[in-house]
Amino acid sequence: MRAAYIGTLTPGSTSRMRAECLRSLTPDWIWEWVDTDAAVIGSPRMWQSAAYRLKAGPAVSSLNELVLAQIRSSTFDLVWVDKAVFLWPDTIARLRAATKRLVHFTPDAAFHTGSSRFFERTLGLYDLLVTTKTFERTEYAQRARRDSVLLTTQGYDAGVHYPRTDDDLRRKEVVFVGLAERNREECIESLLDRGIRVRIAGIGWNALLRRRRDDDNLTFEGAGLFGDEYADLLSRSWIGLGLLSKRFPELHTTRTFEIPACGAVLATERTSDTIGFFSEDDVIFFADYAELGDRITRLFAPGMEETLSAMAARGRLRAAQDGRDYMSILNGVLADPRIA
């Protein structure tokens, strides 16, 4: 079998994790990897901005030229496209002609933030469209064949997301890694106001850091934290925030499984997704930040370490038993009769 993986291959990215899992699941296959991120991140900042905001410009052109150059004159049994937001319809058509089976996978919202006119014009060319967004089922149904859509969940990489320290070495603090949004800032500040130690990382936190520059309970780990460094941070903290984006109706996120996989206690909003994944004994559910603060304060009280440890263990076991790791998820996709 000959296959191609077209997606971001930057180390530490979830796309790279999926590529490596696919290769592990198919040891007898010959894989061609095409790194779509290389053409974008290697471009001047102006071109990168045009690519992300407009899906246009020299970076996008270079990306498509790179893909076509690497698959030219080749035929495949399977082509797996991870996040096709920058790929022109003509590029997808060329891929369609070069392969027996064409798969698209995205863990992101496809029709809200990050939407792509290119992707929307090419949905009908795929044999299988894999999405993790239950709230986008209607959009997929309106734009693609109903029998081409597969709903799965977000996942974690068991080779990266695992406990890296003993529970007795974990810090009584809350950690969040991700993009700053207004609701996330409000959550962090509500915890700080109660004297709870918080450790954050990600882009866009400058305003909050200025406001709380004299708060000793706040620690900033930098704008970028991925792969092993991300898992290590989660492993050294007792509670990880699985805060959902409010830019679109997100119901769960990669953190939903990465946090318990690393042995920390997940704190997450109650949604139709999250209450199906975990019980009240597995994670900290909250409806508002006051409830969240109350629960964390009780759990961080002296003598509650065994309770925290037991909750973390249940959450990790639940994620593993339910097959939320990428190997399990992608093995299920490969076994789907539409592409098997």
Quick synopsis:
It contains 15 helices and twelve strands. It has 340 residues and is of the alpha/beta class.
Q: Could you explain the architecture of this structure?
A:
The protein has helices at 14-25, 36-41, 45-54, 58-71, 89-98, 117-122, 137-143, 182-193, 206-211, 227-235, 255-261, 274-277, 289-299, 305-321, 326-334; strands at residues 2-7, 30-35, 76-82, 99-106, 128-131, 149-151, 171-177, 198-201, 218-220, 237-241, 265-269, 284-286. It is built from 15 helices and twelve strands. The strands form two sheets. Strands 2-1-3-4-5-6 form a six-stranded parallel beta sheet, sandwiched between helices. A six-stranded parallel beta sheet has the order 9-8-7-10-11-12, sandwiched between helices. Helix 1 (14-25) packs across helix 15, helix 4 runs parallel beside helix 5 and helix 8 crosses helix 13. With 340 residues, the protein is α/β, with parallel strands linked by helices. Helix 12 (274-277) links the parallel strand 11 and strand 12 (284-286). The chain has two domains: 2-155 and 325-334, Rossmann fold (3-Layer(aba) Sandwich), CATH 3.40.50; 167-321, Glycogen Phosphorylase B (Rossmann fold, 3-Layer(aba) Sandwich). Helix content is 41%, strand content 18%.
